[in-house]
Design goal:
631 residues, six-stranded mixed sheet, 17 helices, 17% strand
Length: 631
Amino acid sequence: MEGQRRNCRAVIFDVTDHSSSSPSWLPSSTTPPLVSSSSSPPPSSSSSSTSPLNTSSFSANVAYSSTSVSKIDQLMSFLHLSLWPATRVVALGSQQAAEPVLASHALRNTAHALYLAPSTTTCGREGRCVMLLSRCMYCSPGGAPGVRVNPKWKSEQALPSDLQLFPGGFEDMSGHRVQVVAKTLFPFMEYERHDPTPGAPVTPMDSLDVRMLDTVAEILNFTYVVRPPKDEQWGTKVDGLWTGMVGTLEAEEADVSMMLFWSYARKQVIDFTRIYTNEPFVMITRKPRPLPQHLALVRPFSEVVWTAVLFSTMLAGCALWALQKTWASFSGGHAPSLSTSIMHAWGMLLEDPPVTLPTNTTGQMLVGWWWLFCLLLTASYRSSLIAHLSVPTTPPPIDTLKQLLSVPGATWGIEPGFGLGWDWFKLNQNPEVQAMFKTLQVMSVADQMPYVLKGRHAFFTWKYYIKTIVASRYTNLQGVTPIHMGREEFVPGSTGWGVRKGLPFLPPMDRIHDQLVEAGLVNHWLDELFETSMKEARKKAAAAQEEAERKGEKVDTSLLSDDESSDGDQLVLTLNHLQGAFYLLMLGVGVACLLLVGENLVARSFPSQSAVSRNLPVHKSLDKPANIFKL
């Protein structure tokens, strides 16, 4: 039974001396046992003291002494009463034992503790009075625990109906100082350091959690001090021990933490408030750079279409030659050569048709349909080419883990802190993620971003946190950024506040969180903080640009690619856009030069044939275009 948690709603302790008869101030019909525990499901904020209880008891006789009080304290610690702040605790004993029992460390989280002690004086002519002492959590100055003395009760009479033995709620904590542990993650939490000592108090700055904390503190009337975790980590389990904020709460060195992601493992050692927002775990990469513009001339069509066009053109030229040759064999006329037919097919494709058309109906039909095909094809090509020249084509961005792993030489990293994102990599059962974890680069965001900007590097982080950083540091005045955020969300990032086990004012804090969420204030504050951060960042960027222009310095736009840094609405085609046409021209000139060299080599190798060719009579078609289709 050691270390097990007892699910109970009420516990009764007897600290009286049972060496003699039953105390005269109690009814003689029964003597209360040392402990009476009422088993029930785990406590909740809505449980009532009037709920029916199934009582199971065990008892022992302990006379009041410092030893007996110590045993009671050990017994209460054994029962883990500190984990059940809503449990009703009733103790019976002398007035001397009241303060030691109610001040026990085991009752540090107990909201309802009552001590019954016999009075040394009588109540009137007959009967004995019983002093009713209750432990109050935050009733002393500064919100320290104290003892509330209730009106005396005559043991022969019923309790007054208006007497509240267990007053509920923590609506006024009397300025109690709450210890808060937090890490920076704007827009959720931000603070300013004044002392580099680990765990030293910090000054909270305007952020979502600070606004919520101020609201809760004002309603419940408490103060707070914020400290970062000594190891600057969120919290992960190492060799059976929790680090960071989770370890701080587990050791009860703090009462509440600011934003902390829910997880099953963390829930075993700490509690959480209700979820008030989600912060998904995502990855960011650099936006794909535009494809080379020298391929813009061939990019309007796919490889399959270009292959089909080439094949169709050659087929049309061959078909035209075959039809003309067949017709010439029957009519006895002259048929054009195969090369001439193919060149005419290419000419119609390039919108340079022959001057005359075939005279036979079969050739005219073939040329007509081929010409219609060329018109449709060239119209489609021309419109697509304009789009590719004016808007450079970019490959699809990296949105999923599968796409990232398909990039040759890709790397990935995460910030130090060893929180839920680290656990996602470390504990993931996916073989691909396990392989990624072995090469995971742990660096700060300032060290990660240069690798992201170079390309082929993915930075795994939290969505709204990195969105704020990108918008403030890596976005120009026109709102253009080279950073792309993937659409796949690897962890939902359910966000709440972590609290130590048994925190007594968790129910009212949850109620206030519910009201803030339902009123829409959380989303409103989040949007407001984001917009404010963007405006301040753009003001600083504009001021820096004006200062650079005033000094005659060049504004740094190295983070943006050519198409991203364009600041005009009207696009002017540059040499970069039309480089494909110039490359094609240089290719044609080069091929012509090679043919010229080849012709010279042939002329020198076969001089007799070259002389004969030079003495050939001039064809009349050189003066007048000949109808090569006429038979």
